[in-house]
Write a structure and sequence with these properties.
about 350 residues, globular
Length: about 350
């Protein structure tokens, strides 16, 4: 894809880290950072307050409140629309958000509607980050609501990639893997005498309607199937329920795995594109069905949290008897005594 005609938009803090990393990898990407907190923007190397940052005025974070986030973006529709109108040559908008938070999770639906209105010819992709199953009830609730928001406007979206936070030990590891994988996918182009992938082919693969997947194949394994199986296991992206796709892009090292053996592992309904390079083994699927198993696990985790909370018997007080060994115990005050009745009367005023 033509990086100069791509606009990477981060909604919120977690998304900002990924967009910042992609621009560091390739300065040709256009980036736009939208946030409700200045503190989230400050650490980002490629966020310039005078050029590519929109900070909701008069705000200081959303506190993971999706409703507050929705109100903030609705209050700034015209300003964000004006900002997007500066990117009239954009072919692809890639919107990044964490689903468990507030600022991005609550704003993504409205932002996509604004973007489609202002730049109707641009294709819109989404990269949405699911929480790990170790997170709290609010994270799961926000995620499910965000999932429904995204699915309710799927007709406005081309490609959706979901990131699985359970696949690495830290957020940094997840972010680095997402950044590397997406950059390889967007740069899947190659020229070779036995097959080439140009920018238009890459655009077609990366913006196919449906769910997308990026797989990195390791060198030196027994065969193509073993390499693909391991790539699927290690991928940080949520896996589709089936690996049927509309488009398949394969860019492998010269004299490495046989690309035709790789292509046989997937059911491709439209076109397969093959080329070669000297550095990486990358496979990109475009136009898969929306994955459902990962979100079902989030729903199950939320239900389990709620069930345990309902069964919880929370003790708030525990009185220690300091005179348990003494025969003489002081008489406790009995508030049921009639002489204290006036304490609860409305006319008892000091």
């Amino acid at each position: 894809m033509d990086k100069g005609k791509m606009l990477l938009v981060s909604l919120g803090q977690g998304a900002g880290n990924i967009v910042d990393g992609l621009i560091s990898k390739n300065p040709r990407y256009n980036g736009l950072f939208i946030n409700s907190s200045l503190f989230d923007i400050k650490p980002l190397k490629n966020a310039d307050m005078s050029k590519n940052v929109y900070l909701y005025p008069g705000t200081d974070g959303s506190g993971r409140d999706r409703n507050k986030s929705k109100e903030m973006i609705l209050d700034n529709v015209n300003a964000i629309g004006t900002l997007l109108s500066k990117y009239l040559l954009t072919e692809v908008i890639v919107v990044f958000t964490t689903m468990a938070g507030g600022t991005g999770s609550g704003a993504i639906k409205t932002f996509i509607q604004i973007a489609k209105k202002v730049l109707p010819k641009a294709k819109i992709n989404v990269v949405a980050i699911l929480p790990s199953l170790k997170e709290d009830e609010l994270s799961f609730k926000n995620t499910l609501e965000c999932w429904n928001d995204i699915n309710s406007i799927m007709d406005l979206i081309n490609d959706v990639k979901f990131v699985d936070n359970n696949k690495r030990n830290t957020y940094r590891e997840i972010n680095n893997e997402v950044i590397e994988s997406l950059d390889l996918a967007y740069n899947i182009t190659g020229i070779h005498s036995e097959g080439s992938i140009d920018n238009r082919d890459s655009l077609r693969i990366n913006t196919a309607e449906g769910s997308g997947l990026v797989l990195k194949l390791y060198d030196g394994l027994m065969d193509a199937k073993t390499a693909v199986d391991l790539a699927i296991k290690n991928s940080v992206f949520v896996q589709p329920d089936t690996y049927d796709c509309d488009y398949l892009g394969i860019n492998l090292k010269i004299d490495g795995y046989d690309p035709y053996e790789v292509s046989k592992l997937f059911e491709v309904y439209r076109s397969t594109y093959i080329t070669y390079n000297n550095k990486n083994n990358i496979v990109v699927l475009g136009g898969c069905e929306t994955p459902t198993e990962a979100i079902k696990l989030i729903k199950m985790a939320l239900d389990d949290k709620k069930k345990r909370k309902l069964s919880r018997n929370k003790r708030r007080s525990f009185i220690i008897d300091l005179n348990s060994d003494s025969k003489d115990k002081k008489e406790e005050i009995d508030l049921s005594n009639s002489e204290f009745d006036d304490l609860l009367e409305d006319n008892f005023v000091v």
